[in-house]
């Protein structure tokens, strides 16, 4: 039983079937794919003949018992079937892909095992349980991995991969043995050898005589293609007829207006049923028996030729008619002769317009002969119909029932396929065995896949079971998810096999004909209630209803909440025990409304447009009546002893919820004029607060507390009555004075003989008079000063000059205004620090200098001029640089943090003079302002090239060229130096390969020589870069210390000619030729030489060693170049055997000699540095490789391995080769010239087609001698090597066609065999007949061989056999004078 989709607790249609237990299945699919999964059972045997009815009845009885037993055990086994499901749902990954995934996992493990095996065999470390034992790690690791794989695999419950524990243990043991076997060294080599032999046997290709490669196991020749045609002789049977030979189902529509939508074949209200006729005569009369399904009345209907139609093209019916033999079918593609033969198999159609039971009683042909009638019945009922009734509401809630009722009409048992779509997910269901209660029918013994086609007489006595019956089913499952539901009927099939497919209809038509029902399912709304602050609400609170966001919530609007209100128990008579209930409608997920009255608000219930909801979270809110804020104010005066009242103190007391915000307005009274002077907005965070008011100017004031508010009452509340919150007073202001110096921290710094201005801020009514003191701290001397008649509130106090250094304090003593009241001051003082000295600067002349004001230095070096500074750092010194002619070259400033080791750092010669100095706070003076300091340079060293008495040639003032020399011949260059010894000379040497080498020499005298290297060939360039002496040392010099005060460098060039070196073009190669080719240059292998160095032409001395005689001799060749090398002279005088020739001495046109016999390791390095490194390797003496070998050998030979054998297509042609492999063979096959190279001693080719093979020439690798068999005089040898490949003989029957010939009893037919090949022929042919069908009506695949005949010595190309026996005649073996062929297709089949 197919497992039910677990999204539902039970079948969507509930318990609606009557009688037998239905088999049903359904599965979930994605959108757009509605599948039908049906319970498949083994079909019952077709009742082809009434004679088998007793046996069939017994089988049907047993089948019924099995079905009843299966029905009773289906419920018990349901849980077991569910446990057998794969662990991974088939919706995620189907069964086949799960098997593939398991196989891929196993292959990955084994691939990783092969990788570790390679590491193990290579001696590398294999990770595992230990650190050093790789062999143990390999075995233990894969024992654990393989065991886990085979142990875990059955847990996934993948079909065909579930094994019992004994099989799992066996699998683990086998894999462990394989792992141990692979890890052993000797077994691994055995596996490698076996794999290589297997690869060579099955995948190595071989060549045919045409030169094309084929696979060794490729089938070269299809022998069955040499056997064409067959003749089948059939003896015509008696004339027969059969109604509905295809056993198809037919029905007539009950409502033609609807069924015409499904009628894709255009049948209308009639059905056409075919009759198969096997007769050569036309049909004259058909007597048809008709039985009414409702009255069981029998009628006989006679149909003449006007009442039925002949089917003109029966090929489609013939291809479907499985009861016919292949020989009964005449293919329209046969030739004209076949078309002329009239087939006896025909089909006619009869049209039926009434429902009922039909069978043929009698058929008469034109000769008034009765045809034999095969028993067959046809029942034509009304087509099955289905519709949905009582579908329920179109809007439902989660947890409601589907309430889908379907009404079916048809011949039971019925099969219904329908789908259930929830949003985009599709669930398909198939219900079978739908039938009324206590329903009896012979059709219950069959199933949908094997409809019963013949019925017994007892079945036909009462045709009630063949009528359409009404069946009502109800789908009453509970909705478990919200969304849009669609129930759609896909297909309805009755037990006779009539199918009504509604999948082609549009949704509009499905709705019109009640084939589809849709409704929406909504989730239950969930809501909670809470409170929030709202200053506009009478209670300062809002009630907020919040719904959870669910799927498609916007379609379920409006939302409704039912709220109960219970009034609070307080002194409000209008609000005692006040209870009421009201509804709140929401157009969204959240809604807030003001709480008009204090009390308890309870959320009783929530509803949506279609569903009732549930309450989650908070559901009760208690709202209290708010208290407005209130303020009490008391005041006390602030009294000054000098001037009286100067302000008011206010004590504030609040009631309500803090914090409190209040505002104070201050009015100034000027006579009758009341003017707003100031407004203050203040905040009190507690219930008590203190507020003091001191006016900045005297007068009459009125202080009024205006408004109050808090967080609940954000709108200001007017304080009433106003007289309780208004206070009047007349106040005076004391005079004041203070120093208004911004950013003042500790003290003011002042230079000597300077004054300072201090800002003063005065308070009160002008004019003012104030007194201040200046106190000198060191001597404690105090001086008082008075300033009169100050008419402004801001005054700038100018102090006297401070002519003496020290610390001073300026203090404000007292102040009085127009009132005449003097007020002593205690404001902060200001401190002034006066410098006691003046900063200065001068040159600090020391005794170590050459003169008092002069110093000498190197070029581009930095010299320090010492300074003497006084004052407080940091210092800034300004100085001037002048030339020796008095011209000003620049003015500069230097900054010194301290006066310690203050130096002016200069790098240019000239005169330096100080201009001014500043320290951290004051400007200073220059001592001896006219004094100057002088700086001069040392002279630089130089050199001169001595070219008068040397081989140098002066090209320009800076370029010299020396004469060319050979390698290992030295040359020098003489130099004259000037300056202060010792000298350091730097120069660059550019080698021939482009490398630049920087060199440096130390010279103690004024004369020196430079040696130019000569160990490499090419041009050497010496560039003298710089010279240094005692004054201009190298480590202190810069790039400006150039030689000779000259920007041009001195360049000396030297050409070194290389030692000549020549190699053989192909070192250590053996040149082979035969003794006959020595005098013919064109037949000799050319020997080339390669020039690596030197100038041609060359004189080369060769050393020739003869292995046969162990004798050595020298050969000298003059005027040799690589392009004109007389290599044939190396072959002169050589006899049979091997000869080793090497180069020992080379002389080039420059006169340079390279004697390789005396070469040393250092000379090898010379060659390497010269770029001649292609002939030098890692060995100690690679120059010994510069030799060749010449081998003089005899000519190669070839002959047929067996010259007396005749070769056919498919045979191997073999020639034996004598000589030194590899051999080059040129041969001709069917006029096409081919060439082959063989590395073995045999030349083997597969004969892929017939033709003549001739050997043209042969050449081996040792002698390079070409034996040409096409030359005059070689005709006999060429004929001896030629062979002819014969074709495979062929035989055809009936001109190669597969002919079916019908004969009557006693007639004869002729079988004609035609041959191709070379006589005489030998033929073997057989006669076969089809076997009788088994009890199930199935034919055997292989015909039975009845006779086998062999005929020999056939010298003609045709052979005839006359026979009167039916069967198929075909040839199976054929041979001619040379070759033999066997029909492989016959023996394989």
From TrEMBL:
Domain Nucleoporin POM152 ninth Ig-like span(s) in chain numbering: 1196-1268
GO MF, one example: structural constituent of nuclear pore
Keywords: Membrane, Transmembrane, Transmembrane helix
Domain Nucleoporin POM152 immunoglobulin-like: 626-733, 966-1039
InterPro entries: Ig-like_POM152, Ig-like_POM152_1st, Ig-like_POM152_9th, Ig_POM152, Pom152, TMD_POM152
An example Gene Ontology CC term for this record: nuclear pore transmembrane ring
Nucleoporin POM152 first Ig-like domain span: 240-380
Annotated Nucleoporin POM152 Ig-like domain residues: 734-828, 839-930
Any Gene Ontology biological process: protein import into nucleus
Ranges where the Nucleoporin POM152 N-terminal transmembrane domain occurs: 95-183
Transmembrane regions: 101-118, 138-156, 163-182
Name by which UniProt lists this protein: Nucleoporin POM152
Origin species: Maudiozyma exigua (Yeast)
């Amino acid at each position: 039983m197919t497992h039910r989709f677990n999204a539902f607790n039970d079948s969507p249609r509930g318990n609606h079937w009557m009688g037998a237990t239905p088999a049903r299945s359904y599965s979930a699919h994605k959108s757009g794919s509605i599948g039908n999964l049906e319970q498949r059972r083994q079909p019952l045997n077709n009742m082809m003949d009434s004679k088998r009815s007793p046996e069939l009845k017994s089988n049907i009885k047993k089948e019924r018992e099995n079905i009843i037993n299966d029905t009773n055990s289906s419920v018990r086994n349901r849980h077991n079937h569910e446990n057998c499901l794969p662990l991974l749902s088939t919706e995620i990954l189907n069964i086949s892909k799960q098997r593939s995934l398991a196989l891929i996992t196993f292959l990955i493990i084994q691939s990783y095992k092969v990788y570790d095996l390679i590491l193990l065999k290579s001696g590398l470390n294999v990770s595992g349980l230990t650190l050093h034992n790789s062999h143990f790690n390999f075995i233990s690791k894969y024992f654990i991995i393989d065991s886990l794989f085979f142990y875990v695999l059955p847990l996934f419950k993948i079909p065909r991969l579930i094994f019992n524990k004994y099989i799992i243990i066996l699998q683990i043991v086998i894999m462990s043995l394989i792992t141990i076997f692979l890890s052993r060294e000797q077994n691994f080599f055995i596996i490698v050898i076996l794999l290589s032999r297997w690869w060579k046997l099955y995948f190595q290709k071989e060549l045919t005589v045409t030169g094309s490669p084929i696979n060794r196991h490729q089938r070269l020749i299809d022998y069955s293609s040499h056997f064409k045609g067959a003749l089948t002789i059939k003896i015509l049977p008696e004339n027969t007829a059969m109604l509905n030979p295809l056993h198809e189902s037919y029905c007539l529509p009950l409502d033609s207006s609807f069924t015409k939508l499904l009628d894709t074949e255009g049948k209308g209200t009639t059905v056409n049923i075919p009759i198969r006729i096997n007769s050569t005569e036309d049909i004259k009369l058909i007597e048809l028996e008709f039985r009414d399904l409702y009255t069981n009345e029998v009628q006989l209907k006679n149909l003449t030729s006007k009442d039925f139609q002949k089917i003109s093209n029966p090929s489609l019916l013939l291809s479907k008619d499985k009861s016919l033999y292949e020989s009964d079918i005449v293919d329209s593609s046969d030739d004209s002769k076949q078309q002329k033969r009239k087939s006896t198999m025909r089909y006619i159609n009869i049209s039926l317009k009434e429902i009922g039971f039909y069978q043929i009683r009698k058929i008469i042909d034109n000769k008034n002969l009765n045809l034999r009638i095969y028993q067959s019945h046809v029942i034509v009922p009304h087509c099955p119909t289905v519709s949905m009734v009582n579908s329920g509401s179109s809007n439902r809630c989660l947890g409601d029932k589907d309430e889908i009722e379907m009404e079916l009409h048809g011949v039971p048992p019925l099969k219904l396929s329908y789908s259930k779509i929830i949003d985009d997910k599709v669930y398909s269901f198939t219900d079978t065995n739908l039938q009324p209660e206590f329903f009896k029918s012979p059709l219950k013994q069959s199933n949908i896949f094997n409809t019963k086609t013949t019925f017994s007489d007892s079945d036909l006595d009462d045709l009630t079971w063949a009528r359409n019956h009404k069946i009502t089913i109800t789908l009453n499952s509970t909705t478990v998810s919200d969304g849009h539901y669609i129930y759609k009927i896909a297909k309805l099939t009755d037990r006779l096999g009539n199918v009504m497919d509604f999948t082609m209809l549009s949704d509009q038509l499905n709705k019109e004909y009640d084939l589809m029902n849709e409704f929406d399912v909504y989730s239950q709304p969930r809501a909670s209630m809470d409170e929030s602050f709202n200053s506009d609400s009478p209670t300062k609170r809002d009630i907020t209803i919040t719904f959870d966001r669910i799927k498609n919530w916007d379609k379920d609007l409006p939302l409704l909440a039912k709220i109960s209100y219970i009034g609070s128990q307080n002194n409000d008579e209008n609000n005692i025990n006040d209870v009421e209930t009201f509804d709140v409608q929401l157009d969204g997920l959240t809604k807030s409304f003001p709480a008009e009255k204090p009390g308890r608000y309870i959320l009783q219930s929530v509803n949506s447009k279609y569903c009732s909801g549930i309450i989650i979270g908070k559901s009760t809110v208690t709202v209290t009546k708010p208290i407005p804020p209130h303020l009490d104010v008391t005041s006390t005066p602030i009294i000054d002893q000098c001037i009286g009242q100067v302000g008011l103190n206010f004590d504030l007391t609040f009631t309500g919820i803090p914090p409190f915000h209040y505002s104070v307005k201050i009015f100034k009274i000027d006579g009758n004029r009341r003017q707003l002077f100031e407004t203050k907005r203040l905040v009190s965070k507690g219930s008590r607060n203190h507020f003091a008011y001191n006016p900045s100017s005297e007068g009459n004031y009125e202080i009024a507390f205006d408004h109050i508010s808090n967080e609940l009452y954000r709108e200001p509340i007017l304080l009433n009555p106003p007289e309780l919150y208004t206070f009047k007073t007349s106040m005076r202001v004391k005079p004041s004075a203070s120093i208004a110096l911004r950013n003042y921290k500790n003290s003011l710094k002042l230079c000597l003989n300077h004054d300072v201005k201090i800002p003063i801020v005065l308070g009160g009514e002008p004019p003012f008079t104030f007194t201040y003191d200046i106190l000198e701290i060191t001597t404690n001397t105090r001086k008082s000063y008075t300033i009169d008649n100050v008419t402004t509130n801001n005054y700038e106090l100018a102090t006297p000059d401070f002519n003496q250094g020290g610390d001073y304090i300026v203090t404000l003593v007292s102040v009085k205004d127009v009132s005449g009241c003097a007020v002593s001051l205690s404001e902060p003082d200001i401190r002034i620090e006066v410098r006691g000295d003046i900063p200065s600067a001068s040159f600090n002349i020391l005794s170590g200098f050459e003169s008092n004001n002069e110093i000498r230095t190197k070029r581009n070096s930095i010299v320090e001029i010492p300074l003497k500074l006084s004052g407080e750092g940091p210092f800034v010194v300004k100085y001037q640089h002048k030339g020796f002619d008095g011209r000003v070259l620049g003015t500069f400033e230097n900054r010194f943090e301290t006066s310690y080791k203050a130096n002016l750092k200069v790098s240019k010669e000239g005169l330096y003079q100080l201009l001014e100095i500043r320290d951290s706070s004051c400007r200073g003076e220059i001592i001896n302002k006219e004094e100057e300091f002088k700086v001069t340079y040392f002279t630089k060293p130089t050199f001169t090239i001595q070219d008068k008495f040397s081989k140098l040639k002066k090209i320009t003032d800076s370029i010299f060229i020396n004469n060319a020399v050979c390698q290992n011949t030295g040359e020098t260059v003489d130099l004259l130096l000037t300056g202060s010894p010792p000298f350091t000379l730097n120069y660059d040497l550019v080698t021939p390969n482009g490398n630049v080498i920087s060199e440096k020499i130390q010279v103690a005298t004024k004369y020196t020589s430079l040696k130019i290297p000569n160990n490499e060939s090419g041009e050497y360039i010496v560039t003298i870069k710089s010279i240094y002496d005692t004054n201009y040392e190298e480590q202190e010099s810069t790039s400006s210390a150039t030689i000779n005060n000259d920007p041009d460098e001195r360049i000396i060039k030297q050409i070194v000619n290389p030692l000549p070196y020549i190699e053989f073009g192909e070192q250590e190669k053996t040149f082979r030729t035969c003794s006959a080719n020595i005098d013919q240059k064109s037949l000799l292998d050319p020997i080339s030489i390669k020039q690596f160095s030197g100038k041609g032409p060359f004189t080369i001395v060769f050393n020739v060693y003869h292995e046969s005689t162990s004798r050595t001799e020298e050969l000298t060749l003059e005027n040799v170049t690589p392009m004109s090398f007389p290599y044939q002279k190396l072959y002169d005088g050589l006899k049979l055997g091997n000869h080793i020739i090497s180069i020992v001495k080379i002389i080039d046109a420059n006169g340079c000699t390279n004697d390789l016999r005396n070469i040393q390791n250092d000379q090898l390095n010379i060659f390497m540095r010269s770029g001649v490194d292609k002939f030098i390797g890692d060995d100690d003496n690679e120059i010994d490789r510069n030799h060749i070998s010449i081998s003089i050998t005899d000519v190669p030979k070839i002959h047929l391995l067996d010259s007396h054998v005749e070769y056919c297509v498919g045979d191997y042609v073999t020639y034996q080769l004598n000589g030194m492999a590899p051999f080059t063979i040129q041969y001709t096959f069917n006029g096409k010239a081919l060439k082959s190279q063989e590395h073995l001693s045999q030349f083997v080719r597969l004969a892929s087609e017939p033709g003549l093979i001739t050997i043209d020439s042969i050449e081996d690798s040792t002698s390079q001698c070409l034996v040409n068999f096409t030359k005059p005089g070689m005709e006999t040898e060429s004929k001896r090597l030629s062979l002819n490949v014969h074709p495979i003989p062929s035989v055809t029957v009936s001109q190669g066609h597969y002919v079916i010939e019908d004969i009557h009893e006693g007639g004869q037919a002729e079988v004609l065999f035609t041959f191709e090949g070379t006589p005489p022929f030998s033929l073997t042919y057989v006669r076969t007949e089809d076997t009788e069908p088994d009890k199930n009506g199935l034919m055997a695949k292989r015909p039975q061989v009845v006779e086998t005949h062999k005929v020999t010595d056939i010298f003609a190309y045709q052979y005839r056999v006359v026979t009167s026996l039916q069967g198929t005649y075909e040839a199976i073996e054929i041979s001619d004078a040379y070759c033999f062929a066997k029909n492989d297709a016959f023996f394989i089949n």
